[in-house]
Design a protein that fits this description.
Order of helices and strands: EEHHEHEHEHEEEEEHHEHHHHEEHEHH
Radius of gyration: 20 Å
Helix content: 25-40%
Strand order of the largest sheet: 5-4-6-7-1-8-13-12-11
Number of domains: 1
Largest sheet: 9 strands, mixed
CATH topology: Peroxisomal Thiolase, Chain A, domain 1
CATH class: Alpha Beta
Number of helices: 14
Distance between the termini: 52 Å
Bound molecules: acetoacetyl-coenzyme A
Shape: globular
CATH superfamily: Thiolase/Chalcone synthase
């Protein structure tokens, strides 16, 4: 199960990651809110939250990630037949984020361009649609540029505040040089108001305990499909090289793993082995970034892929409030061990500036100006 022949199937040919230039340690937020930092560090599993400076946002993140993915790819922008951006940080109810990205990349012509929304699941949906588009071969020889980009902010003092973060992951969907994506997938959806952001609201509304419950039920429902009829679920789970999850905060992933323990009657030793060997290693970058909504799963996948031998099969579980979820297999390709995208993350983490609580407060007071997006006259006439 954990190995198969490396194949040039449809999948990810290049990955680029972009993180914003600011961040804040949890100790600063804990002090500001009069909270015990251990609640944030150990209770939620968060160490540092990525932050955007004023005037910097989802488009900057998306374009930065896209340029990095394109720069390492053997093709160029003229080979792109689809640009799809998954995000829950939309700038406009009508104009897709992909139009901002295409404009920055100088893309125009024979390609499809759109935005995908389903909370944190939007980036995965964009990827799945791109894989299916590629499999349908509707534009032979063309590749898709898929970007998951988000800035996660809650109202000041909200329980979600310590889980904030930001980041983007761009993936070029073509052959499976970095990783091939399985055709089969295991989706599950159920309408719920666990986390939503009504039109005109700057921040999400959250039913915290319900959101945890929905995420865990979705995990069980997806894995039950994957492991249907499996006599030895623990052995099957352990045969994968890794399991990556959407990471709203790292402790959520541990809760999801506990849910799998219940669903498949794993004992405590099995649960610990499963979490420590197959899940925990992929959470390192997320702990330093926070929740990047649509990008969180893909940051975890990117972190994990560079540690897998070509041919190793892992799983990716995507969850988006509302809610929708999907689980599928990813096979590490011949290029994954080079882990070229790790340089993006390592250099962004090393160069970002850590702000103090006072600067964070100032940043928050100016953020509503950043969300207004009136295009300059020059852009309209271009
Ligand atoms: N030291 C160590 N641990 C401590 C502690 C201390 N001093 N104080 C509290 N804790 C522990 C608690 O025991 C708890 O642990 P368990 O969950 O294991 O019991 C943990 O810290 C969190 O404490 P609370 O439950 O009291 O936390 P809270 O209610 O203040 O906030 C939250 C938690 C509701 C998840 C909040 O962070 C939130 O609203 N987050 C946004 C919603 C979210 O992320 N939901 C996840 C599923 S939805 C999704 O995945 C979509 C998405 O990206 C948003």
């Amino acid at each position: 199960m954990s190995h198969s022949e490396p194949q040039a199937a449809v999948g990810i040919a290049s990955i680029g990651v972009q993180l914003p230039p600011l961040a804040m340690d949890m100790s600063e937020l804990a002090q500001l809110r009069g909270a015990d930092v251990n609640k944030y560090r150990h209770g939620l599993g968060c160490d540092v939250m990525a932050l955007c400076p004023e005037g910097y946002g989802v488009v900057d993140l998306a374009v930065g990630a896209a340029k990095r993915a394109l720069g390492r790819w053997r093709g160029d922008v003229s080979d792109i037949g689809l640009v799809s951006v998954g995000s829950e940080s939309a700038l406009d109810m009508s104009r897709p984020l992909s139009a901002w990205v295409a404009s920055e990349l100088g893309l125009r012509g024979n390609f499809r361009s759109y935005e995908v929304k389903h909370a944190c699941y939007g980036g995965t949906l964009a990827l799945r649609q791109a894989v299916e588009w590629k499999l349908a071969n509707v534009q032979p020889g063309k590749a898709a540029l898929v970007i998951a980009t988000d800035v996660a902010l809650y109202a000041e003092g909200d329980p979600g505040e310590p889980t904030q973060g930001a980041g983007a992951v761009a993936m070029i969907v073509e052959d499976g040089l970095v990783a091939s994506i399985a055709r089969a997938s295991y989706p599950y959806s159920e309408p719920a108001f666990d986390f939503w952001r009504p039109v005109g609201c700057a921040f999400p509304l959250v039913e915290g305990p319900l959101s945890l419950d929905c995420y865990q039920r979705a995990t069980a429902a997806c894995y039950e499909q994957l492991l249907a009829g499996e006599a030895e679920p623990f052995a099957r789970l352990m045969a994968y090289g890794a399991h990556c999850f959407h990471v709203p905060f790292p402790k959520m992933v541990k809760k999801a793993v506990s849910m799998l323990g219940q669903a498949f009657t794993l004992d405590e030793g099995q649960l610990t082995a499963f979490f420590e060997e197959k899940v925990q290693p992929s959470l390192a970058w997320n702990k330093q970034i926070g929740n990047a909504y649509t990008a969180s799963l893909w940051i975890s996948v990117a972190d994990q892929l560079r540690r897998l031998a070509p041919g190793t099969i892992m799983t990716a579980f995507s969850y988006g409030s509302g809610f929708g979820a999907e689980l599928f297999e990813i096979t590490a390709g011949p290029e994954c061990a080079r882990g070229a995208w790790a340089r993006d993350v390592e250099s962004d983490l090393a160069s970002r500036r850590l702000v103090k609580a006072s600067e964070y407060t100032k940043l928050r007071s100016g953020e509503r100006r950043v969300t207004a997006s009136v295009p300059p006259a020059a852009a309209i006439s271009a």
